[in-house]
Amino acid sequence: MTNNKEIFKNLLKKIGSGEKTSKGLTRKESAEALKLMLTGKASPAQIGAFMIAHRIRRPEPQELSGMLDTYIELGPNLISKNRTSPPLCFGMPFDGRCRTSPIYPLTSLVLLSNGNTIVLQGGKRMPIKYGVTPIELFSTLGLNLKGLPLKQVQLGFNKNGFALIHQPDHFPLAETIIKYREELGKRPPLASMELIWTPHIGEHLILSGFVHPPTEERAWKTLEQRGEKHIILIKGLEGSIDLPTNRSCIIGSMQNGEFSRIILHAKDHFLQGIDTKWSDLKTWKKHAFQALDNKGPLINAVKWNSGVYLWLTGKSHTIQEGLQIAEESILSGAAIKSLENLISWKNSLGHKSMN
Question: Global pTM?
Answer without folding.
Answer: 0.94
